[in-house]
Amino acid sequence: MEPQMPYDDVAWEQSDNVSDNWLLQFLDIDVKRSIAKFILKHDSGDDPEFTILRKGSFNITLQMKYTYSATNIRFSQPGAILFPEEKVKNEVAVMRYISDQTSIPVPFILHSGTKEESPLNLSPFIMMSHIEHTTTMYDALNTPGCPNEERGVLDPNINEDQLGMLYTQLAKTLLQLSKSEFPKIGSLDQVDDFSWEVTSRPLSMNMNELVRLGTLPRSKLPPLEATFKTASSYIETLAQLNIQHLLYQRNDAVQSADDCRRKFVARQLFYMLARDKKLSLPCCENGPFKLWCDDFRPANILLNENMHIAGVVDWEFTYAGPVEFSYAPPWWLLIEKPEYWSEGIEDWAREFDRRLKTFLTAMRRCEDIDTQHSQLRLSDQMQRSWESGDFWVVYAILHSFAFDAIYWQKIDRRFFGPTETDDPSEAWKERLNLLGENQKAEMERLVTRKLEEMEDRVLVWDPDEYTEAFRQGLMKRREEKVKEDKESHQKAVEGPQI
């Protein structure tokens, strides 16, 4: 059994193709000049110097540096972000909330706008203050000498005191986020200068990736205006999305007939658990719900020369989420995800358990100082989540491509008891009796369809209008280039006209 479900490689190629070609325009001096003028229209300083700062997974950031400060402008990348306007709107509201309601240092937003309001109609953007820093939490925790192109992993030889100091700062930030309280699950909207409300669906990183790399139709996501009053209703919706993902990913979703059956059974059983409210905590069913950031991780935490947090960035996939999400200990304590761990999920869990003790010790020290956590401690809830296995339920909910291995190795036996086989990849055969006849018939129809789909590779993709418009323009330019080359070749063959 593979550690994670492969992405649809045809869609992935399209996504990267659009994103890579869109980024090329930032090498054009006229484009950079227009962006620089746009920044100076809304900001000013001595001796401005303009440069491309960095290209991330979802955005490109450019910077105007002054004598004593700097301003960044960040554009969403078509092909990478498939909900660009919604993403930027949500992030602006969240960053302003965090700045006003917590002590977490975040960039100050100077200006933001839609694609139409951006320079040269490039993309939705945020213009914000630059936070000076020396390094990131990722670099401080990562194994020394790890090449940039390789996936990082927590330094196995890191000094325990140093690790405790870094974990303490991370714990303080999570404790700040856990103080937030909202009556519904969803994305924030700023009502006035000092108040925010949950008014729209919780746009998650997983939803973006399901559409981008799992070819899930956008129509299968919760409607834009959808919010959730209970944790169980939201978790049931996400469990249903995992089923839809298997149904709709056109390429690379299954490797064989039995692989398809195994994935179908896992998703049906997980959905049954969600429907029966066995994946959520009764005490947290109605909230109050906590602010949750899908992309909160060491790479987005900036450190100063004293190795203290200078700022936290990249809040685009942040929303009021189930309390269970906040109660789960952070997977990024090891930097690497369990599905990518070279020695497998079980070895990841053993190493995580060891480092979690250090992290929870650090968090308890913070809680001892913070009187607001004197009764219900986040550290106790994280320990309970890990020991009970709720951590794995939350992880499977938030990481659809990693769902299968997590389910069969960490969730199935907890709820449905032991199996005769010790091989998790074969356990599905002993769970067929839990499905109804209609479900079994649906499974066999899906197997037939998926095997037929394996015979060819077709792009079935539902991107946003900006990504699709750029993709169509790219295809048109390539067709014109092919036509020009063909005409030039024909003229060369025919020779000069007499």
TrEMBL record:
<protein>
    <recommendedName>
        <fullName>Aminoglycoside phosphotransferase domain-containing protein</fullName>
    </recommendedName>
</protein>
<dbReference type="InterPro" id="IPR002575">
    <property type="entry name" value="Aminoglycoside_PTrfase"/>
</dbReference>
<dbReference type="InterPro" id="IPR011009">
    <property type="entry name" value="Kinase-like_dom_sf"/>
</dbReference>
<dbReference type="InterPro" id="IPR051678">
    <property type="entry name" value="AGP_Transferase"/>
</dbReference>
<feature type="domain" description="Aminoglycoside phosphotransferase">
    <location>
        <begin position="85"/>
        <end position="327"/>
    </location>
</feature>
<dbReference type="Pfam" id="PF01636">
    <property type="entry name" value="APH"/>
</dbReference>
